[in-house]
Amino acid sequence: MDPEALFVYGSLQFPDVLVALIDRIPDHEPVAAEGWRVAALPERVYPGLVPGEGIARGFLLTGLTAEEWRVLDAFEDPVYDLTRIALVDGRHGWGYVCNAGAKVEAHDWSVEDFQARHLTTYVERCATWRRRYEQQEQAG
């Protein structure tokens, strides 16, 4: 993989989540991908990106280090595959896309609902995950 930029459309578009996982907010700008849908996932507070009508909106993160890519890859659910995605402005970014076996809801994920109901707890979960991840990495 040549990590050029990461298209984030769900929980990774929140600065607090990024800080909990990689200790910083990378350079980012709003972007969109046509032909994709940000779907709600059953029994999860975060979404999945699936092909569909409409436009998926999010941010393009640039300047991620190799270590930051490793952390984010380890963090992401096995329901995702890292896929290169065409953006509406002609650029491309990598995105965590639901794989073929993933179950998705018929309705779209709500960024506003996530922020209001789940963000604080989710950030705490991310920080806990990162502590465990770093302990495992040190244990080698």
Question: What is the gist of this entry?
Answer:
This protein has 140 residues and is α+β, with helices and mostly antiparallel strands. Helices cover 33% and strands 34% of the residues.
Task: Please explain how this structure is put together.
- The chain has 140 residues and is α+β, with helices and mostly antiparallel strands.
- It has one domain (5-139): Roll (Hypothetical upf0131 protein ytfp).
- The protein contains 4 helices and 5 strands; from the N terminus they run E-H-E-E-H-E-E-H-H.
- The protein has helices spanning 15-22, 66-75, 111-117, 119-139, and strands at residues 5-8, 27-40, 47-62, 80-86, 92-98.
- A 5-stranded mixed beta sheet has the order 2-3-1-5-4, with no helix packed on it.
- Helix 1 packs parallel to helix 4 (119-139).
- It starts with a strand and ends with a helix.
- The model has no long low-confidence stretch (mean pLDDT 95).
- This is Putative gamma-glutamylcyclotransferase.
Secondary structure layout plus pairing:
Layout (H helix, E strand, L loop, with lengths): L4 E4 L6 H8 L4 E14 L6 E16 L3 H10 L4 E7 L5 E7 L12 H7 L1 H21 L1
Parallel strand pairs: 1-5
Antiparallel strand pairs: 1-3, 2-3, 4-5
InterPro entries: AIG2-like, AIG2-like_dom, GGCT-like, GGCT-like_sf
Keywords: Transferase
Protein name: Putative gamma-glutamylcyclotransferase
